[in-house]
Design brief:
mainly alpha; 60% helix
Length: 62
């Protein structure tokens, strides 16, 4: 009987933890959505339009 109570308590704690994490993530997402980010910095002169890694590989069949 004690084992069943212990397992039920563990399952209940896991469920409460999952709910708490879900609520904290929702609150964090709302805070991020409400924050107004600044405009991106201007591109320094002399850089090509695409500075990604794939732009540096010419003729790569990937």
């Amino acid at each position: 009987m004690e084992t069943i109570v212990l397992i039920a308590a563990i399952i209940l704690m896991i469920g409460i933890g999952m709910l708490w994490i879900h609520l904290l993530n929702a609150q964090h997402d709302a805070r991020i959505a409400a924050y107004r980010f600044s405009d991106p910095l201007p591109r320094p002169p002399g850089l090509p339009d695409d500075t990604g890694r794939r732009a540096h590989h010419t003729g790569a069949d990937r």
